[in-house]
Amino acid sequence: MGSAFSVVASVAILRSTFNEMIPDEVRGYIWSITRRFSTEITMIIKESHDGSTNRLFKAVVTYLDGHALSNSVLPKRLTVGKNENVRNFTYGLERNSEIVDVFQGVTMKWKFNSDINSTSHFETRWYELKFHKMHTELVKKKYLVHVLEMAKMFKDRNRIVRFHTIRHDRWSSSGVNLDHPMTFGTLVMDGDLKETVLNDLDCFRRGKEYYRKIGKVWKRGYLLYGPPGTGKSSLIAAMANYMNYDIYNLNLSVVTSDSSLEYLLLHVPNRSILVVEDIDCSIKLQNRESKKGDEPADSYRGPQVTLAGLLNAIDGLLCCCGDEKITVFTTNYKDRIDPALLRAGRMDRHINLSYCTFSTFKQLAANYLDINDHDLYCHIEKLMEKVKVSPAEVAGELMKAKGSKTSLEDFITYLESKESQEEKSSTAPPLASNVDGNRPEPQENGNNISKSGVQDQSSHTETEAADMGNVGGYSVKAEFANIIKAIFSKHGDIAANSCLQSKQCRSSLLEIVCRIIQKLQKAKLKDLKETELKSMLSELQDLESMRLEVGWLRKRLDEIVEAMRLFELIAVSEKLSDTIFSTEVKLNCIYNKSLVEGLI
To answer: Greater confidence, 270 or 72?
Structure first.
């Protein structure tokens, strides 16, 4: 140990003596001669270049941040920090620390240096990049470009999405963080639509060279249209989070002129999403193909943006000032938008977000209730074929109650209520008008329009009551009342042990049973098809999954299916032999009337 210390001390003394005895000029000459025989080249990347900030220096900081912890050989000292504008922690090299990077199999050695002036206390920072001199062209033409591109990607990936609004015809000085949790992973969309949108966004993100090749500005326009509550705003948030683009919300109703609109669009930065919501009603952009009578009576008529100004702003020469921008328009009524706005180049892709389908419902139930299947699903599916309900309505209903079964039962009640309301509105007679456009005076002969102008519901209620019957506490259609009574008389209350709690839900299931029996009673064997019987069997399986006691009916259907198959065999054999029973005998043998008459 003592000898080691003596060697270190001797080296230090020799170095000090060398620096004191030999002038700087001579030392510089010696080092220059030494470097001639060195195989390494060192590049110095300073913080400032030609009196301004060195873009490459900032890129190196970000690039090494992305590589600092992913490298197999970690530096001994790292800096770490985080501010409100980034998602994750950022890392960097401490003073005099080194890190090794490998690019296309070539080793690149980075070292961070800093020096503080003792007089001005100004800190000078720079990076040293060392590599073998035979790879000089690789570094100049490819590696430094790679550093710039990767640094941009790391920075964009770590950046927090911000939301910007308009104040006095100018964008707000600093937007707010868009901490929206919606992603394409949680977004509910029907069929392959989600995959189509994702593929389109990916093609756009990678399309810089393609757009340049075809001579078009690197931008993309989307139109989201559909009824309220179908997920237009949620899709925009998912797009922003996926692309990591800031959102600039363009409220046209607060923009005072075309020139103000031009200024706003000129100051939308690259890698951003410009959102124009409810374009059909935010300002009066008259559809030039519509009739004057179609204009809303309360249209805004003050100083505003014109249609020509908007068209020029989003697809004129002004749009050439910038790259990698997305514009998203939303509307509830696509037909109210001027065709000039709808064409490609302004709204390149039109995405229809419609009412909730059963497929969409299953995705929502998986998100909100953590279930992929349930006994009540078949009943919900049949109701959703009749009732129009938005995804927002479905989500609101599923969030009301705790527990999957309770939530689904409440949702069924909600759908049945909507179905009842829609039936009433569709059957209610419209209020007729006379030639002058006024409502007719109420008649004295008992019409259902009262003197106050309000429709009298008494006759409508009486008609509904006449069409319904109550059997054992179940409200069913009058045509099914006798069938239900016969079933209960022979088999008891087959819905008593059902997993459904609502009497109304059980009633709808009983009606399904009645329809099957009614169809069997009216049909003849030769008119029945095997596919129809299989469909009935499938319905019975669904009913049994809801604990309806319909095993007796399923057994009888199985017997009928077997009888039909036997009849087909005899029909074939009849062609081969002349000594077969007559048709009447065969029918009596195969299709005993008791198969149907004994059901109830």
So the answer is: 270
Residue 193: CB atoms within 10 Å: 13
Report the helix count and the strand count for the chain, using DSSP H and E: 22, 19
Q: How far apart are CA 560 and CA 581, in angstroms?
A: 20
Instruction: Please report which helix (H) or strand (E) contains residue 594, including its range.
Output: helix 594-597
Nearest to 233 by CA among 249, 244, 252: 249
Return the DSSP state at 376.
T
pTM over 0.70, yes/no: no
Question: CA 25: distance to chain centroid?
Answer: 69
Task: Give the tens place of pLDDT for each residue, 423-479.
Answer: 776 665 554 444 344 444 444 444 443 433 333 434 444 444 446 777 877 888 888
* DSSP bridge pairs for 351: 224
Cβ 257 vs Cβ 376: under 8 Å = no
374 vs 402, more confident: 374
- Give me the count of residues in the chain: 600
In this predicted structure, what is the pLDDT of residue 467?
Answer: 60
At CB < 8 A and 24+ separation, what contacts does 42-49 make? 42/128, 42/129, 42/130, 43/128, 43/129, 43/130, 43/139, 44/126, 44/127, 44/128, 45/126, 45/127, 45/128, 45/129, 46/124, 46/125, 46/126, 47/124, 47/125, 47/126
Nearest Cα to Cα of residue 490 among 339, 598, 382: 598
Residues 6+ apart with CB under 8 A from 426: none
Residues 500-519, mean pLDDT to the nearest whole number: 81
- The Cα–Cα gap between 293 and 299 comes to 12
Name the nearest CA neighbour of 280 among 342, 345, 356: 342
Q: CA 433 to CA 507: how far, in whole Å? A: 40
